[in-house]
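Exam revision sheet. Question 4 asks you to relate a sequence to its structure. Input first:
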Amino acid sequence: MTSRDDRSLSRRRFLEIGGAAAASAAALSVGGLDGVSRAFAAETPLSFQLSWIKSIQYGGYFAGIDQGIYKKAGIDPTFVSGGPNIDPVANVASGRSQIGDRPIGPLVVAREKGIPIKVIGTVFQKSPYSIISLAKTPITDVKQLAGKTIATATSGRPMMLYLIKEAGLDPASVNLVPSAPDPSALVSGQIDGYAGYSTNQGVMLKTRGVDIVTLNAHDLGLPETTGTIYAREDFLKDNRELVVKFLRATAESWRWALANPEATAKLMVEKYGNPGLVYEAQLAEIKESKPFIEAGPAATKGLLTLDMDLFGKIIALYRSVGLVKGDMKATDLCDPSFAEAATKA
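Answer key, structure tokens:
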């Protein structure tokens, strides 16, 4: 997964696109498509906005297409690529896509700004977001950040400052600089640490023969989920059965992908992923991702299940760094009933 600078969607912008959103939601509701009743359609179309480009971090979704799992559920999903110039939350908020995925941070911020979205599931129960350093100059404790240059996305800066302050360090003692998607600056010695994903940038470095050390942010007291699935509240209200079927098929798809990592990596490289993907790196990433996807409630309640206590802690953390100012609760941000229904036969 790639940490990107997250562009927030203002309340004003949401109101500007509200008319388009309503029209799009109506056109894509279960009741009709281009004037044709869905009762006569073999499969219901559904647009899903990906947070980043098509790669193995979305392998489960594309395995579901390839294995006919979504087709069996009566759904025809389109997974829309994200990227550096895409605002995924805005695309879902405007109705261009009905569902999307994102690290939880931008979703908390969007909800705080009044954007009516709800979290309904999550692929990565524990985020692999980490401070990555070279094994020859390892960072094994937050206190060691003093005097170091650390690359981080703008969206991750408040969280890094939180860690630094909690460790009793002067924030001025750590040089935080903007990060690029590729962590090569770590190898060249331009930076001492890179705040990114052990399943993505970490794997990227390992497959280049670079020995690294990772310090997981979740383990340091920064709870986060990623691959977090969300949708507009009005779409969820009007399409409950469709959403539950989608989540059920998605959980089955990810189970298949995790059980068949070699086949899934091959699918992404040869058929579904962006050009230029390397099989060895894709295979390493999905294997590295498995324990993060199967963590928490996924182990006992099923994949995608929401840990409401965890989301409460996430909101509290974002409140402590000033990104949440209101009285947001986990039930305001999340609706666990969709994933719970999806786990039932």
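Marking note for examiners. Confidence is low (pLDDT under 50) at residues 2-40.
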